[in-house]
Amino acid sequence: MIVKPIGILTVSSGEFVEIRKTNSFNSDQFLNQYHTDLISHTNDERIPERFVHAKGGGAFGYFEVTHDVTKYVSAELFDTIGKKTPLVVRFSTVVQNLGGNDLAREVKGMAIKLYTQEGNLDFLCLNYPVFFYRDPLFFTSFSHSFKRNPKTFLLDFTMSWDFVTKRPDALHSYLWLLSDYGIPNGYRKMDAFPIHTYRVYNKHGDTYFVRFNFRTEQGVENLPSDVAAEISSRDLDYFNRDLFNAIENKTYPSWRLDMDIMTFEDVKNVDYNPFDVGRLWKEGTYFTETVGRLVLDRNPDNYFRAIEQSAFNPANLVPGIPGPMDTMFRSRRQSYRDAQIYRLGVNHNRIKVNQPLYYKGYNRDGVSPLKDNMKDAPTYYPNRFSGPVPYVDPNMPKEKFKIYETTAVDLEPAANFYNNILKTDDQRERLANNSVARLITVSPELQRRVIRLFSLAEPDLGRRVERILVETLEQPPPPIQPSRVLKVPPTMYAMYSSKMNDENQNNQFIHN
Fold it and tell me: If both were cysteines, with which of 130, 141, 338, 340 could 311 make a disulfide (CB 3.0 to 4.6 Å apart)?
């Protein structure tokens, strides 16, 4: 197969590169603009790594409405059965740095950007439906405790256990992490949850509260720790490779979107906080409606342009979906935009992958890309000239209300997970084993704190972890294998030694 060049090579200014400039030997390299272009660009071709979710992959696709949900939500993308909305998805693993291990036992992310006619709608999902904390004040401390020790620069289980035992509302989510759900078998075989309870409204202004759930149509599949360790010894990029290959082979991954729904009256009468991101809704207090299907059918042709530069923000909402009202979401509305400005610049929403289908505004200038920079339209509002004007949403509900949250810790959700979400004794035993694997390197005092917290949540869990920890600590260490020494015949050793001496003399001559 003959492959033709795509064109003549140029420098960044467009000047053609003459073939003799592709070699800097025996020439003045500082007059070679091709050489200068390469070196100066290489120095600046990296952008800041994400603080969390640094390593990831992604693809393009579409969302198709399969069921009528206009009774509950007036958003344009859901208004017609059969309607397709283009989208981009970025998957990620939370703690790993760029180049890290896909199969590490940690939360996985699935960020979705839907390009609707009413603006971009972003869902930032995790692979299980609860989060580690409710108070956004603890984001920094939580993230630091799961990242690297500032002295050793190693991942340190003492830090994460210390945080969880001091903030026991994190226990429920941590049990999901330590269970079979902690290592899905690739991004295609995990569910995804935006975590929060969203406020939505219909064309009559009626308010509903929903939790969106993206259910994988490949079936949920998880990996035991030993299998994950074996795969990662051969392929640190297992998740990304699996996703890319499936799409290339036209085995397009898909997810069904469901909405768990409560009415305004339901929310006022349940015996728990339905806006708590650290707990599941209780069975019998809500009903579920299917919305449609998300399908990924196209790999990006350039990873950096499409995936590394993608910027997701849970505050990207559309009419009909004003969004969650809990304290943590209100904080996220601010922090995500600030993170994207740091990483990509103030005009990150004008980068192609982040661009909405329609944009008119008064923001100007700054670091590129600028697109047309709104040309000569007015730069201030209000004005009597041609500047864009706001619209009136006749469907917006008139009711206003505020959520008050408690600082009390409720361990019932953690107990419910252990007793009801985990269906078998084998699942509970694996959770205990995974817990012990992270406990054996920490101090006895911290081990006792963890076992006490587990026992408060569910006595059987505390007993299991204590039993397995004692059994593990009483086991003798594995025998030290004698080092394998290559025995070299005396004559060969003499020849090798003579050769090394000759090489050392040559090196001395060169350096002198």
Answer: 340
Residue 227, C-beta contacts closer than 8 angstroms, at least 6 positions apart: none
Contact status, residue 338 vs residue 313, Cβ threshold 8 Å: no
Q: What is the CB neighbour count within 10 angstroms for residue 156? A: 19
Is 90 exceeded by the pLDDT of residue 277?
Answer: yes
- Report, in angstroms and rounded to the nearest whole number, the Rg of the chain calculated over CA atoms: 28
Q: How many CB atoms lie within 10 A of CB 148?
A: 14
> Helix-strand-coil percent breakdown of the chain, rounded to 5?
35, 15, 45
Closest CA to 265 of 289, 286, 288: 286
Residue 481 CB-density burial (10 A; 0-12 exposed, 13-18 middle, 19+ buried) = exposed
3-state secondary structure 378-405: CCCCCCCCCCCCCCCCCCCCCCCCCCCC
Helix, strand, or coil (residue 353): helix
DSSP character at residue 483: P
Global model pTM greater than 0.85: yes
What is each CA distance from 405 to 266, 328, 408, in whole angstroms? 18, 11, 9
**pLDDT tens digit string along 58-101?**
999 999 999 999 999 999 999 999 999 999 999 999 999 899 99
pLDDT digits (tens, 9 = 90+) for 133-159: 899 999 899 899 999 999 999 999 999
Work out whether the CA dihedral 127, 130, 133, 134 comes out positive or negative: positive
CA distance 108 to 214: 14
Instruction: Please give the order of strands across the beta sheet that includes 84-93.
Output: 119-126, 108-116, 84-93, 55-65, 287-298, 254-263, 207-216, 198-201, 323-324
Whether residue 256 contacts residue 293, with contact meaning beta carbons closer than 8 Å, is answered with yes
Q: Can you give the pLDDT at residue 497?
A: 39
Chain-centroid distance, C-alpha 192: 11
Nearest to 102 by CA among 229, 194, 14: 229
Task: Count CB neighbours of 129 within 10 A.
Answer: 22
Number of H helices and E strands in the chain, helices first, is: 14, 9
Q: What is the DSSP code (8-state) at residue 159?
A: H
Q: What are phi and psi of 220, to 5 degrees?
A: -70, 130
d(CA 289, CA 121): 20
Burial class (CB in 10 A: 0-12, 13-18, 19+), 249: exposed
